[in-house]
Known about the structure:
By secondary structure, this protein is α/β, with parallel strands linked by helices. The chain has a single domain (8-209), classed as NagB/RpiA/CoA transferase-like (Rossmann fold), CATH 3.40.50.10420. 26% of the residues lie in helices and 23% in strands. The protein is built from five helices and 14 strands. It has helices spanning 13-36, 42-55, 58-62, 79-87, 163-168; strands at 65-67, 91-97, 104-111, 114-115, 118-120, 126-128, 134-135, 142-146, 149-151, 156-157, 175-179, 185-186, 200-202, 207-209. The strands form three sheets. Strands 1, 2, 3, 4, 7, 8, 11, 13 and 14 form a nine-stranded mixed sheet that branches. A three-stranded mixed sheet has the order 10-9-12, covered by helices on one side. It has a two-stranded antiparallel sheet with strand order 5-6. It is globular, with a radius of gyration of 18 Å.
Amino acid sequence: MTDVPRKALPYTLEQLDALRPRAKAALRKRYRGLRASLPPGAGAARSQALCERVIALDPWRAARTLAVFRSLPDEVDTAALIAEARARGCTVCLPVVVDGRGELEFRVAWRGDEGFALEANAWGIDEPAAGAPVVPPEALDLVVVPALAIDGAGHRLGYGRGYYDQTLVRTVNAVTLGVAFDFQLIAEVPFEAHDVPVAWVVTDQRTLRASSDDGRDPPENR
């Protein structure tokens, strides 16, 4: 967050740190409700526009081993991304929550023409079954990351379990894309030391470069 002189703050920095989890909880409740209130069909149209933006990105086109989440009913629908990656013969991984580890495991769902068995998880979403090949996070070229809310600096609000934050620290060779509907893009997401920002933010209306390795000033609106 932007540094502010201590004398201008109504709270101490320690108090602000304590407030961030409460602010996150309030935002989660608000944006779960907003997303759930989308009219029928609106999510599909927005998802299509968003997927077209992702597919147009150079990092997406260059990726050969990538991870994409399967969507909850009111999330951005990633089916078009999965279909495009499979059509190019990419290795497509899906994230799986591994009990007791607090992080995600990326299992191969499709590799070229080869597909692996899927089974429904606790949320009713199909994921690769145990025994599917596992790709280490550091071997991924690109990871698509969900968000309840996200800002232009790449800070995202997840579901509060921290799975992606604990996993993204290991995706050292991957481009990370945070995807959300445009109404989920906010001025600033409260973030803590353990939160890991994404490199790109893509909505149905905007593509933002949230970080840059070449020293240029991000983000870039397109």
